[in-house]
Amino acid sequence: MTDGCRLFGSELSPYSVKVRSYLRYRGVPHEWIPRSPASQAEFQKYAKLPLIPLVVTPEGEGLQDSTPIIEHFEAKASEPSITPADPALSFLSALIEEYADEWGNKWMFHYRWSYPADCWATAERIALQMMGHQGPLAVAQARAAVAERMTGRLGFVGSNPTTRPLIEASFKRVVEILDRHLAARPYLLGGRPALADFGLWGQLYEAATDPTPGAEMRASAKHVMAWVDRMVSPKPEGAFESWNTLSSGLMPLLKEEVGTLFLPWSAANAAAIQKGDKSFEVTLAGAAWSQESQKYHARSLAEIRRKYAAAKGAAGLDGILAEADCLRWLA
């Protein structure tokens, strides 16, 4: 394909499928290229970092990091926009997306690599993608190596025996909140997907394809599962709603998750980075949390604060953020 983009990614990467879903929604011609040894030389030609997704534009520009990739294409086209006209709603969508990318990834990673059934199923899928062309022995060896490497990285996202109950409670609460909210609308902000949908969906799509969280979602969250299916190739079905009609569904997410867990965790991580501490401890929702400091995430907090500074005057925004206990972390 020469007239479209090339998207290097993996079915097992929440950020890769997030960008693919967005490109499908926008009708951007693209070729999906699974990351494997066969595509590695081409990948390295354009990638500044060894991370997927990578989008190579028809002009030969390499774009990385899912949010900037989406923002790049969003700046080029008008409809169907994923940005509500209401600047307060637009910021809330960006805040939920940031929460999904940085906190929601903990659910996905924790279930995938700390539960044996999920770990071995995922390691098998990765090994087949990377080594399938070399036969069963190579796949079996790669599967064991992947499982060992990835379980060793659980601490990086903050998954450990201390934090396990909080991560799993957060996942179950979000699925419950979203299932109620999505009973009355096809997407998080109404009749069409917003940035918030793409961010949350990437993590929950992966969870839905893994044995343990997938079984839980199928048993208790039919509206979430319908949305997961819809977001594979989303289409506009109507307009964005107003905060008045969305608030009863989204305020619990903002208050119980973003304001209570994500932003205090973000601030504690950023403070640890600033002090040069390799790890940090913080109390979240009355529970102890301890983990290695995440350098990359400190940039994410700075970015959401920058977006808040740009949206600060929006009618009603500070009242919503104050009620959700988010304002003090953003101002």
Kindly list the characteristics that best describe this protein.
331 residues, alpha+beta, Glutaredoxin, 2 domains, four-stranded mixed β-sheet, two-stranded antiparallel ribbon, globular
* Average pLDDT taken over every residue: 94
Give helix % range.
55-70%
Number of helices: 14
The run of helices and strands is: EHEHEEHHHHHHHHHEEHHH
Total beta strand runs = 6
Rg over alpha carbons: 20 Å
Q: What does the largest sheet look like?
A: 4 strands, mixed
Task: Estimate the global geometry from the Cα principal axes.
Answer: globular
- Give the oligomeric state of the chains in this entry, treating copies of one chain as homo and distinct chains as hetero: single chain
Strand content: 5-15%
Number of domains: 2
Low-confidence stretches: none
Question: Could you give the distance between the termini?
Answer: 46 Å
Helix-and-strand structural type: alpha+beta
| Major sheet: arrangement of strands | 2-1-3-4
Secondary structure layout:
Elements: E1 5-9, H1 14-26, E2 30-34, H2 40-46, E3 54-56, E4 62-64, H3 66-74, H4 87-114, H5 116-131, H6 136-151, H7 164-181, H8 195-209, H9 211-220, H10 222-230, H11 243-275, E5 279-284, E6 287-292, H12 295-311, H13 317-323, H14 327-330
Parallel strand pairs: 1-2
Antiparallel strand pairs: 1-3, 3-4, 5-6
Helix pairs in contact: 1-3, 1-8, 4-5, 4-7, 4-8, 4-11, 4-12, 5-6, 7-11, 8-10, 11-12
Short description:
This protein is an alpha+beta fold and about 325 residues long.
